[in-house]
What we know:
The chain has 274 residues and is mostly beta strands. The protein is 5% helix and 34% strand.
Amino acid sequence: MMRSRGIRSPTIDFRRAATAVLGALVLTACGGQPQLPGTPPPLVMVPDTIAAHELAALPESTTFGDLAAAPSDPAPQSETTGVVVRAKQDLAVYDAPHGRAFARLPATQLANPTWVPAIAEREGWAQVLLPSRPNGSTGWVWLGSPERTEKARSPYVVVVDVDQRRLVLRENGAETASWDVSVGAPASPTPRGRTFIMAAIEETVTKYSPIILPLGTHSETFSTYGGGPGTVALHGWPDASVFGQDRSDGCVRVPPDALRTLTSLPLGTLVLLR
């Protein structure tokens, strides 16, 4: 459905956000568990020291991936604190703090830097939403290496009321704009749950939207859109009669002024599909 020409993602002035890069943290020692003979040990216990070949062997967490081992989002309709995490380098993703690595979060997604929302934090770890199938996939990443990760805060939340076909933008909890939109048709509904703006890419294959904003969620009806992985997106539409209707294949079609506003939001911004 879409092809990136490597355009730059929306400008993000994280210096104005109320966040800072996390400093180096020190892991406290944990008591070991008895291990039966022949039981394989966890992949790694100290995230900073995972071997390069072990990291490279992990399946990638991208919009093209399917991570059956990923923990599910425990609160798929809840808001977050706005904290977003950037993978400055490829990161190991764990099933729990100090748990087993099951995936690798790459530093880029669709030629954009990887920013993902944190839904929980614990002693130097962050549980983040992942861009892979199944929808609602999460994992834990270690924040104790500032050369590998960066924390910031997006003050924005995008709320899509699927039943009312209405998109609302909030900044620091206050509604700043809203638009009628088009959502998935009954046979191809827009998936519900919390996700995020994963990338901003220029559409070069079709002409229905100048910019597409892929989200970290997928169609539950189609395995692909035109050969892609079935990634749901926010995008424009040339026919204004669809707004306020359920006409799409699962994506959220938005008016031109909405697209301009949404394109300016930081990557990793939370999107609630309700």
